Every structure is written in C-alpha cells, then in structure tokens.
Amino acid sequence: MRAVYFTGNRTLELREVADPTPGPDEVILEIRASGVCGTDLHAYRSPEASQNIKGHEPCGIVAAIGTAVDPKIARVGARAMVHHYDGCRTCRNCMTGWSQLCDEGSVVYGGSVGQPQRRGDGAHARWMKVPAHTLVALPEALSFDEGAAVSCGTGTAWGAIRRMKMEGGATLAVIGQGPVGLSATMLASAMGARVIAVDVSDDRLKSAKRFGADQTLNVTEGGLGEQLREMTGGLGVDYVMECSGNGAATEAALAATRSWGTLCLVGLGAQASFSTGPDIILRQISIVGSWTFSKLGQRECAEFCATRGLPVADLFTHKFDLEDAAEAYRLFDTQTTGKMVLRPQ
Asked: What pTM did the predictor assign?
C-alpha cells in the first residue's frame, strides 16, 4: 500500500509499504477518511523526518480482526472511528479511557506531539492496524469524513467543553475559529450557550456565524480583553476557550474572564505570563488545560452530533485523494483553509 511519511522541512513522500496484518488482539481498518489536523503542522514543518505513517484522525470499515478479538468489540464490516492512543491498559488513566495519559507512556497512532510517547502508524494509507479496544463505533447518521473530524478536532472541542463543566445559558468566548474553535462554537451553541466567536479573519468569523455564534469579534487591531468585557456589560465572560495557541491571546483571555469564571487552554505553543494573585486568586478564576478527549468522550461527541444533526461535514473546505497529500499539506500549511481530509480510496 501507499503511505504518507513526513521527510522534514515541509516535505513528504508516499512510500510503498507492506499491507499490515492483525496480531491476536488487533484489527485492520480500511481507511475511508483520514483528517488533517493543525497539530500535524508541527511535525510537517520540523527538520526531522518522521518514522511513522502520519494521520491521527482515522475513520473507516473493519476489514480484518485478530484471532483473540471478541466479536462484541469488533466485527468485519463495522463502521468505526479510532481513539488513536494505547497504553499499558491497566493504570487508572487507561482504565478510564484516557490512554494518552498512561502512567507508562502512550502510543499515539499517527501522532506528532504531546507527552513523551511512542508513535504508531497512522491513517494516511489505505489500511491501518490498531488494537481492537481503540475502536469507537461510527453512528450511521455520520459520514466517514464526519467521523474523522470527531476523531480529533471536533472531539477535542467536546472534551474542552466537558472539562470546563459549562452550563447551558452561560456565555462562552471561543478564541480562534479554526476547525477546533468552529467545532466548539457549533457544539456549545447546540448546548444552549451564548457564543462569542473571536478571530482575526473575517472569513472564519462568517463561518462561525453559520455554525451558531451569537456574536463575532475581529481582534486584528487588538483589544481582545477590553472588547469582550464591553460585550458583556463590563462583567467579563463566564467561560473562555483559547484555541489559537497565541500567548497574547491567552493573557487577554484571562483578563476577559469574569470573577468565578473558567478559562480553558486548548491551543498548543503559547507562552503567557500573569500574576497569580490579582489575575487568578483574588478573582476566583479557574484555569484548566484540555488535551483531546477520552474514549467515552469520543463516543458521546459522535452521538451528540448525530442525534442533533449538527453540520460537522461543513467544517471541511478541501478533500484530497491520498496521492495528492503533498498538495494538501502545502495548502493546509498556509492556514487559510478550513478542515481537510485525505481519502485513500
């Protein structure tokens, strides 16, 4: 089969590799959609070549199962997403569906960033081998593309909303309207929140309105904290989700969070500074970090999107054949697009 490897400094190649075969507790997934994620750009831009097949947003059909796989867990022909992590399977984090936080260190399939980890082969190929227990059923109402979105970007937004314990009717500001931020806007709006979408791109803010944002804010000229406070009668925002990974935006987001409010950090790479006293303690602010989602959270997100008929498919602005992966990543690297997907078939 043909598979995508990053070769360093914004280059990649399609290599001929052997088709995988399942071990006793493994399955082979025939990939129908493999999402392209913003975190992939860290590895794509790196001078170091990758040693694994890329793509950590898999969705497809179970094509083969190992001899020890319980048919209740996986069966040939089933539509499935993948919770793209594995660990020791016995520590507290693994047992509760948070394999990416395994005490012994995790395997991330197609992964590029995160805690110290081993990197398994991902989904930018026709076939993908994973442990059977990582499969998450894809609801019939969702397409394979939508399943790929839930497998990372949309699922990450879901995990962050759950991490904040957001209440319906509250005000949520979502900073950064890339695929994760747009997903957060869509999900939170469906949950009954008043959503203020923030970005520096008018095009992305127009998309945010289509995904349910009540108000939008372009902060090209700065003034994020002041403008959010003005939009909330001087009180500040109940919940703020920072998805841009920008340090200045993180500091402004904290300033815009109201007393007793919650700031959730999702975007990677930010360096921010603040005073613990007046900025946090004396205002009773909660700051939480959120990294992707649990296996159960992935299933819940997919079911929520399916039962509410949410327009997850509209997150995608470009779809490419696997053979055009180089063109896809060149375009995605401009950061002017919405979400992308590669289709091996």
From this structure: 0.94
